Amino acid sequence: MSPKYKIQIIIFTVIFLTANLFATNYYVRKSGDDSNDGLSASTAWKTVTKAAQYSLSPGDTVFIGADKALTFDGINDYVDCGNDINLNITSAITSETWINRTVSSQTVILRPDGAGDKNTWDSGTYSDVNDQSDATYLESSGGVSPPWQEGLFSTANHSAGSGTISWVRVHIRYKDDATALIHAKVRTSMKTNGTEYDGDDVTCSASWADTYTKYATNPSTDSNWTWNEIDNIQIGADGQGTGTLLLPVKAQVAEVWLEVGQTVILRPDGAGDKNTWDSGTYSDVNDQSDATYLESSLSELLPPWQEGLFSTENHSAGSGTINWVRVHIRYKDDATALIHAKVR
């Protein structure tokens, strides 16, 4: 599912390029009134025509926007700003759009798409482990103490996903061809920034199973993963058969894939079960701005805790197991003395 975006239309900024030390900002809002002075969002004009007819000075800026954000799904979406004949702009302008991504992204899955730096498996190549099928696979040799056989494969560049990467997992699907008590071994393999990293050895059985190795940070840098590193990563699997010359046991790997985990961010979108704050509501804490806020009481010596709960939008990205949830707040008080308020 494609992530949705909220686009905050502060959108259209008209800037006359001639300098003016006394430049003024003016505002147009749907909820405005052309009889207002236009000098703030709360006293905005209603129409672009009013702004065009006003005697603006060089350097003045007119902010034209909606009263709330628009939600786009990425399909045939656009904003029609109109074509008012009274808005006859003859000087250079700058048009700006502020985009607020309410959902950061979804888990990104990348599969092998080509040969990597090595493949010493007895049979099979990248195309045998990228098809989400158990019908084709990498297969090792068997016998008495054969060496580990290794494979690394390139992956397609990501076409979805941006922002901070929370973790990376290298997955493999594996088994062996044994029905006895002795079994082959496999492990994940990954190469980044010129260095190879192997996961823990896993003992196979005669049935298909999945395993993965998780890297919270890039082990070559001990820092958060970057999308450039993801695009240049190689992933794969190693296998070691076992058995005897007459009864060899062969390791098999049917799938290799990379999972890139990202944080999903959800913000308040409505009233919840309570709000006892003196002032403010959900719309004052969902705009990524310090200009609006919830504010508590100072009407008594020991005021009670004031509480607020708000609903959040449903997620449009993210699936599978949830590893953790964090509730964030941004806070301060208005005190300059040694005594301060508390939040939680």
Beta-strand portion reads 25-35%
**What letter string, H or E per element, gives the SSE order?**
EEEHEEEEEEEEEEEEHEEEEEE
Compute the average pLDDT: 79
Per DSSP, the total helix count is 2
Query: Pairing-aware structural class of the strands and helices?
Result: mainly beta
Shape summary: elongated
**What about the largest sheet?**
6 strands, antiparallel
Distance between the termini: 34 Å
How much helix is in the residues?
under 10%
Assembly of the depicted chains: single chain
Cα gyration radius (Å): 30 Å
Number of strands: 21
Uncertain segments are 1-21, 100-105
How would you summarize this macromolecular structure in one to three sentences?
With 344 residues, the chain is mostly beta strands.
What's the SSE blueprint?
Blueprint: E1 5-8, E2 12-15, E3 25-29, H1 48-53, E4 61-65, E5 70-72, E6 98-100, E7 108-110, E8 112-119, E9 138-139, E10 149-155, E11 165-176, E12 185-192, E13 195-198, E14 202-203, E15 209-215, H2 227-231, E16 234-240, E17 242-243, E18 248-249, E19 251-262, E20 268-275, E21 308-312
Parallel strand pairs: 3-4
Antiparallel strand pairs: 1-5, 1-6, 2-4, 7-19, 8-10, 9-19, 10-16, 11-15, 11-19, 12-13, 12-14, 12-16, 17-18, 20-21
